[in-house]
Design goal:
heterodimer; A: mainly alpha; 8 helices; B: mainly alpha; 4 helices
């Protein structure tokens, strides 16, 4: 697929008769990026697929709310993040009180056909899941997606300094988790 | 002992099914709800419905303007009445205060001069 600029997509989106065509270009350009953003939060492929669909449907129905002065990628990432968090919060409420970890997908990673990691990778995912929500988001964006702090700042509406601090604390906690659970 | 090096390039342990993204793109486009109704509402048309809506909005806007003007006139009138009343009340208060002040002032003078108020009145009556 030829690379298409966001400005060109936005121009097409503003024309009612070209909206579907523009949206398809947007899906082609951003589905992979958004999927991995979601997958690192949600871990399961099936759940990530659901959240990704919800993200694009929300983007489609909320096209009127997109302000052309903000970046398309920032807007989409925000929707994806919110949908991921909503999904995780909903799943938390559905989890049995007797066994809080029973339904958590991170505990079934070893048997997940779409997970190729070893024991260390499993422990890393468990450590990440134990982080507070904001630290988890920042860590995933920085470590797995190698995002720049400036881009993260736009998406999360948080200062670069605060993001660096969040990442630093996240790393510390993950290392501590490894020390405690070995 | 398991360790993790978070300074090196991360390994992605997750996989996706083959052709997932190509299939996803086609699937999501099929699932998108139609926007035809919204587009018709937004687009400019000469249908009677739109004309009727335009006339209703026209009438409403003029009614609104008239109501606003009435409101302003009423408000100004109310304010003026309030100011007159306030003026009358202020004058009464001022007179009262002045009267009180004279009496108080008289008491202070008497205290300072060590004379009784009867003496003061007696003096003033004699001079008249």
């Amino acid at each position: 697929m030829a690379h298409i600029e966001d400005n060109d997509i936005v121009k097409l989106l503003s024309k009612p008769d070209k909206q579907r065509e523009a949206f398809e270009l947007m899906v082609q350009k951003y589905s992979s990026m958004l999927y991995w953003q979601i997958r690192h939060m949600v871990t399961s492929h099936e759940d990530s697929n659901d959240v990704l669909q919800n993200t694009f449907i929300k983007a489609w129905t909320g096209l009127d709310s997109f302000r052309a002065d903000s970046k398309l990628s920032t807007w989409l990432y925000r929707i994806a993040m919110n949908e991921s968090i909503t999904f995780l919060n909903k799943r938390k409420q559905e989890i049995s009180l007797d066994d809080p970890d029973a339904s958590s997908s991170v505990n079934s990673l070893e048997s997940d056909p779409w997970f190729d990691g070893d024991e260390t990778d499993v422990m890393l995912q468990k450590a990440i899941q134990s982080l507070p929500e904001k630290q988890r988001i920042v860590f995933n964006m920085k470590y797995f997606q190698e995002m720049k702090y400036e881009d993260m700042s736009e998406i999360l509406d948080t200062s670069v300094g605060a993001l660096k601090a969040s990442y630093h604390f996240a790393v510390e906690k993950i290392e501590k988790y490894f020390n405690e659970h070995d | 002992m398991k360790t993790v090096d978070l300074t090196s390039k991360p390994k992605n342990p997750f996989r996706v099914p083959d052709d997932y993204f190509q299939n996803f793109n086609a699937r999501i486009m099929e699932q998108l709800p139609e926007k035809k109704v919204a587009e018709q509402c937004v687009s400019i048309s000469t249908s009677s419905k739109t004309k009727h809506r335009k006339m209703w909005i026209y009438g409403l806007s003029h009614t609104g303007i008239a109501a606003a003007i009435c409101g302003i006139v009423f408000g100004v009138t109310l304010l003026q009445n309030k100011e007159e009343k306030t003026g009358e009340t202020a004058m009464a208060i001022e007179n009262s205060l002045a009267a009180n002040m004279n009496e108080e002032y008289l008491d202070d003078v008497c205290d300072y001069a060590m004379i009784g108020t009867d003496d003061v009145f007696a003096c003033t009556t004699r001079n008249e």
